[in-house]
Task: structure prediction
Amino acid sequence: MTSQLTAYIDSARVGWFLRESSGGIRFVYDDDWRASAGRLELTLSMPKSRRQHDGEAPANFLWNLLPDNEAVLERWGARFGVSPRNPMSLLSHVGMDTAGAVQLSESDATDLPGEGALEAISDEDLAAHIRQLRKDPSDWLLPGHSQGAFSLAGAQSKFTLARIDGAWAVPTGRSASTHIFKPGIQGLEFGDLNEHLTMSAAAAAGLDVAESRILRVGGEHAIVVERYDRVTDQSGSVSRVHQEDLAQALGVHPALKYQAEGGPGVHGVMNAILGSRGRDSAKSASAFVDAVLFNWIALGTDAHAKNYSLIHDPRRGPRLAPLYDVTSALPYPAFNNRNARFAMSFDRRYKDFEIELRHVVRECARAGLGPDDVIDRLRSLIARVPDAFSSAKAESELDGDEAAFAGRLVNAAESRVNRLRREIRRWRGDDLDG
Ligand SMILES: Nc1ncnc2c1ncn2[C@@H]1O[C@H](COP(=O)(O)OP(=O)(O)O)[C@@H](O)[C@H]1O
Ligand SMILES: [Mg+2]
Result:
């Protein structure tokens, strides 16, 4: 059992996760790092102003770096011969490439030791892994590259690679991946295409969104998302940018990522952003509200605490990261009639069919926005959303079933916008009283 795991950022030792005899996990900062890190925080849930952190925050921080998918955890436990219930043991095998800049190692050196490498991967092997994930959605790690293990949150099948000199490679050891691949969810038609189109539409509507595209290789397809927590310089060397998701920032276990399960809602996230006192907090808060409103308009139901992140800037403090994992339930009639439920509530309502404009306005009021501001933002998003979906479709150059699916998404977005437009036209301030 792993009893100590050292956290590094940018090769510098940040501190130690320590297993206590009680079974709990403690985190202790390295004093040198506390003194030199500027405004950089490992996580808002364990501010470096305190040297030692006990309670749930250390374990929850680690759990949030791991998949929220039991089958994957079980599989990794079996593959590495460790308990799938022990986040330190799991991360001693997959903690060298995670979300953000943190790297976890059983070493205790002041500077992160060890090598990294990039192993070329052929198109055939890439296609074979995508195919394998469709057959066996928990088989995330590429075969034959045990040093290339990564960890990312989420339940969907995924893997990571690095893009170097126009070719794909498996990063091993301390090397960083630059892209996330997701073939889509079993049972959700065109899931990868939906995510790409919805993210592209959000970007076209003016939101800050991670870049994505649909990769087609060897008869397979997957959404490939560019990692904004990686920066490649002109010489081709990749560095990591630190980020954490909102479950980490609030010290919440991933099982509680949905508000209905006890996770944060719109005002909880808003408080975390404003409370972080980053120099760009006001801008981040505004971007977050636009994301919430976009998701309401586009029926992006899965925007829970782990689908928003904060980037930690050493000088400016935390700011909202670009959006990722944005998908629309609009093209799935079976979902979007009476079954669509949002991850965060609007005035205590989760079900789409129960949510009216006044509930959205009230929820935003709790997060500090006046009704006129909300209506203005909605008007401006609604004016852009239909064209944003159409241009996302046009730029994707689709044919056949894919074009038909994208057409369904565009049409559904247009009808929803027309309905919301009528609601806004009828809006009067006194609607809030009802
Ligand atoms: N473009 C990106 N850049 C950096 N990190 C990302 C990006 N997209 C996703 N992530 C990280 O990877 C995790 C899993 O990705 P996500 O797309 O949310 O998967 P899932 O659909 O399984 O929830 C996210 O919770 C986030 O921490
Ligand atoms: Mg996600």
